[in-house]
């Protein structure tokens, strides 16, 4: 199975893909949009994307793309993120003057840079990509910051392990596939949805066995009580929310989409809550129904 990831081989996304789909063939992509393009065109059967980090928060671009593209979340995993200083063979820490990595990774290693002011933090497009660059270019004064997977992939030398500030540093990854339908609600589409509200029908063959978690996105009118009414559809049915967050809509200044994860799969209370939400929201999109990590 071909699985698209953003970044190079040896990245944390690569590690997560192998954890979720053992034996898969990883297809590295330079940009996040390319990952979604490959899934949409069918040149990759699935993709594994980071969606949230315990220190850096939500990966905004991926959250936006989940709403814009016809994809469906089928699973999630949590990966412990350990950052390592990785150099070309023979390089010593005393010679290092630059550390390359993804900006989010650099931000998670602030204490290391405070203790080593002689080393400059240099943003790079990918964690594993920084190691690949350092090794292939045979840089003697630079290192990459990435996981052990990258050190193995490119035969790099770990000069210092576990340089992240917080040892409870985790990233949540989604497994996504091409969707064969979306559940939408709101005034203009309510009639269309009324006759076929079952997620099992709309996402036939996409909901994994044991699914007990749902991710959705919805938009409400900017009127008093709109968000309260939207959230009440879950409270009335004793459905627990594990996350709620808002994101601005591109091209629609001062309008926002709410992202919600709730702890139910494709059952009657969840379907009733989504039907009810469709009556009070401008639109609702089910992003995925999957087994929680």
Q: What this model shows, in words?
A:
The protein has 293 residues and is of the alpha/beta class. It folds into three domains: 1-80 and 167-179, D-Maltodextrin-Binding Protein, domain 2, CATH 3.40.190; 84-163, 3-Layer(aba) Sandwich (D-Maltodextrin-Binding Protein, domain 2); 182-293, Alpha-Beta Plaits (2-Layer Sandwich), CATH 3.30.70. 30% of the residues lie in helices and 31% in strands. The chain contains eleven helices and 15 strands. It has helices spanning 12-20, 32-41, 60-68, 103-107, 110-115, 127-136, 148-154, 190-194, 199-202, 226-235, 268-280, and strands at 2-6, 25-29, 46-53, 57-58, 71-80, 84-87, 98-101, 120-123, 142-146, 157-160, 170-178, 213-219, 241-248, 256-262, 283-290. Strands 1, 2, 3, 4, 5 and 11 form a six-stranded mixed β-sheet that branches. A five-stranded mixed β-sheet has the order 8-7-9-6-10. A four-stranded antiparallel β-sheet has the order 13-14-12-15, sandwiched between helices. Helix 10 packs antiparallel against helix 11 (268-280). The longest helix has 13 residues, at 268-280.
């Amino acid at each position: 199975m071909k699985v698209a990831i953003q970044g190079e081989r040896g990245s944390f996304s690569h590690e997560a893909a192998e954890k979720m789909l053992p034996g898969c063939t990883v297809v590295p992509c330079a940009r996040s949009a390319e990952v979604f393009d490959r899934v949409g065109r069918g040149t990759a059967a699935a993709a594994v994307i980071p969606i949230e980090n315990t220190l850096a928060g939500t990966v905004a671009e991926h959250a936006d793309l989940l709403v814009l593209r016809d994809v469906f979340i089928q699973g999630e995993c949590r990966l412990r993120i350990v950052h390592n200083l990785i150099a070309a063979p023979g390089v010593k820490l005393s010679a290092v003057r630059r550390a390359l990595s993804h900006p989010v990774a650099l931000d998670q290693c602030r204490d290391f840079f405070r203790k080593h002011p002689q080393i400059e933090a240099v943003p790079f497009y990918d964690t594993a990509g920084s190691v690949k660059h350092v090794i292939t270019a045979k840089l003697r004064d630079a290192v990459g910051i990435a996981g052990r997977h990258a050190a193995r992939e490119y035969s790099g030398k770990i000069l210092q392990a576990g340089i992240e500030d917080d040892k409870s540093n985790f990233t949540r990854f989604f497994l996504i596939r091409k969707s064969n339908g979306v559940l939408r609600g709101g005034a203009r589409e309510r009639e269309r949805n009324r006759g076929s509200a079952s997620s099992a029908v709309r996402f036939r063959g996409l909901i994994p066995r044991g699914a007990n978690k749902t991710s959705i996105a919805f938009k409400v009118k900017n009127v008093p009580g709109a968000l309260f009414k939207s959230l009440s559809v879950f409270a009335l049915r004793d459905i627990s929310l594990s996350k709620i967050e808002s994101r601005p809509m591109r091209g629609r200044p001062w309008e926002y989409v709410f992202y919600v994860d709730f702890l139910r799969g494709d059952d009657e209370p969840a379907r009733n809550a989504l039907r009810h939400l469709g009556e009070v929201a401008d639109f609702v999109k089910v992003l995925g129904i999957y087994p929680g990590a």
